[in-house]
Write a structure and sequence with these properties.
Blueprint (H helix, E strand, L loop, with lengths): L3 H12 L3 H22 L1 E4 L3 E8 L2 E4 L6 E4 L2 E8 L1 H7 L6
Antiparallel strand pairs: 1-2, 2-5, 3-4
Helix pairs in contact: 1-2
């Protein structure tokens, strides 16, 4: 797994920019993604996927220790949906 400094170093080398500029770009991308997902409900990173804000309904669950039914309240979560091209590049589809 790559760490943030490794990602920054790779971006700086590939784009031929200083590491400080690469850090600024990476942090601005995160800030922009957060702001857009919060306001519009989704943020797309072309070729990678999109972050989508989803409202979950209230539901009944079970306590795994006692088996007792419990109520799970409604809440909003963020899901990341991978782009098909990215998914196929990482895990090629099975041939029939």
């Amino acid at each position: 797994m790559m760490t943030k400094p490794q990602i920054v170093a790779h971006l700086a080398e590939k784009a031929e920019i200083p590491k400080k500029a690469a850090v600024a770009v990476l942090e601005e991308l995160v800030t922009l993604a957060t702001k857009e997902a919060k306001s519009s409900g989704q943020f797309v990173v072309p070729g990678l996927g999109k972050a989508v804000k989803v409202n979950r309904k209230a539901r009944t669950g079970r306590n795994p220790q006692t088996g007792e039914a419990i109520k799970i309240p409604a809440k909003t979560v963020v899901k990341f949906r991978l782009a098909k091209a990215f998914k196929d590049a990482v895990v090629p589809p099975k041939k029939k």
